[in-house]
Write a sequence for this structure.
């Protein structure tokens, strides 16, 4: 059986009476095409010389079987094919693990949530009324149970002496006294402080009437940017009340929970030394 191999740049001409029947067998793509009836195809002729164009050559090949040439997919056909995301074995197992963990967590939390709804002592999650005794006065406010004592003092009661610096319980700038003991107010919830006596920097002195420690901080230039100063004043006040004649080692140990990023430790050391001498 004979088949005609047409080069991609060859443009065949069909007799006018066979256009309707033969056109469907010719591809216009830039790839070789195989025709079943090569005798029905006429090469393009140069109208001036009357001879076939040199690029319109034909190649007649004998085939024992017909092997059609497959045309490459066009860009449009490639983009229209929907892409199905592949799922790896690891991703499949990971998805199963996450789903199982979420189901188990929900099953474990549900009884706790139901018990909390039936317990009258559970407060929240919305705002609840609390009463805080601050600097000798009872202050009533509404806070969510998750609000820290520091945020309640600064944002709800406008007591901004305690500074919010690290908010991680490491620098001591938020130090206040709870029943006479220094604590980090950023690490205690406001609802936990209810029923205790809270003393802030505003409660131990004022710019007009400062206590001894505050005066000593000014006299010994024991502050610079001022963010750590309220915490140091609170910690030093409670320490010097219990240890009026401290040693340098005791001072460093007592104030070890407060940090000064400006490095005014020498002046703070002098504050405690002034107490040994009877004041500034």
């Amino acid at each position: 059986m004979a088949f005609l191999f047409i080069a991609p740049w060859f443009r065949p001409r069909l007799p006018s009476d066979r256009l309707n029947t033969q056109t469907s067998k010719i591809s216009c793509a830039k790839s070789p095409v195989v025709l079943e009836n090569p005798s029905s195809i006429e090469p393009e002729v140069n109208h001036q010389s009357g001879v076939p164009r040199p690029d319109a050559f034909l190649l007649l090949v004998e085939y024992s079987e017909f092997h059609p040439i497959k045309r490459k997919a066009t860009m449009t056909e490639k983009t229209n094919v929907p892409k199905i995301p592949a799922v790896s074995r690891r991703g499949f197992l990971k998805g199963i693990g996450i789903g199982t963990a979420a189901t188990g967590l929900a099953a474990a939390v549900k009884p706790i949530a139901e018990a909390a709804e039936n317990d009258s002592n559970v407060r929240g999650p919305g705002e609840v009324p609390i009463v805080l005794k601050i600097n000798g006065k009872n202050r009533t406010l509404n806070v969510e149970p998750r609000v820290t004592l520091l945020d309640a003092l600064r944002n709800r009661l406008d007591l901004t002496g305690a500074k919010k610096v690290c908010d991680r319980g490491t620098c001591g700038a938020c130090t206040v006294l709870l029943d006479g003991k220094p604590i980090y107010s950023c690490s205690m919830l406001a609802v936990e402080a209810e029923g205790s006596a809270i003393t802030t920097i505003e409660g131990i002195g004022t710019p007009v009437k400062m206590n001894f420690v505050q005066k000593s901080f000014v006299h010994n230039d024991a502050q610079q940017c001022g963010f750590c100063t309220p915490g140091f004043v609170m910690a030093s006040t409670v320490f010097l009340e219990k240890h009026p004649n401290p040693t340098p080692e005791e001072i460093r140990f007592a104030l070890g929970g407060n940090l000064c990023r400006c490095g005014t430790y020498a002046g703070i050391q002098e504050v405690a030394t002034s107490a040994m001498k009877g004041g500034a």
Q: What stands out?
A: Confidence is low (pLDDT under 50) at residues 1-12, 14-36, 54-67. The longest helix spans residues 89-118. The CA atoms of residues 163 and 227 lie 6 Å apart. The chain is about 35% helix and 15% strand.
